[in-house]
Amino acid sequence: MKDSAKDANNGEKRIGATRAVSALLAPLTRRALGKHGFSSAALISDWAVIVGPELAESCQPVKLAFRRGEREAGVLHLNVSGGAALEIQHIAPQIIERINGHLGYRAVDRLKLVHAPMPYARAARNTRHARARRTRNGPATPVDPGRWPALGEIADAGLRESLLRLGAAIAERESEAKK
């Protein structure tokens, strides 16, 4: 019984109990995040919750800059994908309000948008493109050439087959939309 309370490596008694990794995360990341102005990991770890999953795909916080000696009313630097910059600029007041509400104090006064590629968004986009490529190989419903008689006049067999698949995919989407 006494042996189980001792550390197997050096025979010394263990001090403390097992703790959750989340309890250790803040002290471990404080120094690294502090260099970028983040007093805690909450803004980074909860980003998708704060701004929503769609918006989190197209922007991410990089740095929170404050005036010297102050810890509120800072400037949040966001990496933003090109197409989302205009949308984020328009809804900046709502984003700032959500951030400050989540953190519990007026941490952010304004946003500074920096155009940069989004690595996570690229991965998600590639997944969507892969799904689209899978559907290009052929629709789930069989192709009915009699439904589009004008396609019979096309001499190129590859083009005719592609147009048939396109028509079948459109018809399948329309039938799914009606459901």
Structural write-up:
There is one protein chain. Helices cover 49% and strands 12% of the residues. With 179 residues, the chain is α+β, with helices and mostly antiparallel strands. It has 2 domains: 93 residues, GMP Synthetase, Chain A, domain 3, CATH 3.30.300; 39 residues. It has a 3-stranded mixed sheet. Strand 1 and strand 2 form a beta hairpin. The radius of gyration is 27 Å and the shape is elongated.
List keywords for this structure.
alpha+beta, GMP Synthetase, Chain A, domain 3, 8 helices, 49% helix, 12% strand
> What string gives the helices and strands in order?
HHHHEEHHEHH
What would you report as the Rg, rounded to the nearest angstrom? 27 Å
**Mean pLDDT across residues:** 76
CATH architecture label name of the largest domain:
2-Layer Sandwich
Task: Detail the poorly predicted runs.
Answer: 127-131
Q: Give the overall silhouette.
A: elongated
CATH topology of the largest domain: the name is GMP Synthetase, Chain A, domain 3
Largest sheet: 3 strands, mixed
Helical proportion, percent range: 40-55%
Strand content: 5-15%
Count of strand segments: 3
Number of helical segments with 4 or more residues: 8
> Which structural category do the helix and sheet elements fall into?
alpha+beta
Strand order of the largest sheet: 1-2-3
In the CATH scheme, the class of the largest domain would be Alpha Beta
Query: What is the CA-CA span between the terminal residues?
Result: 66 Å
Total number of distinct structural domains: 2
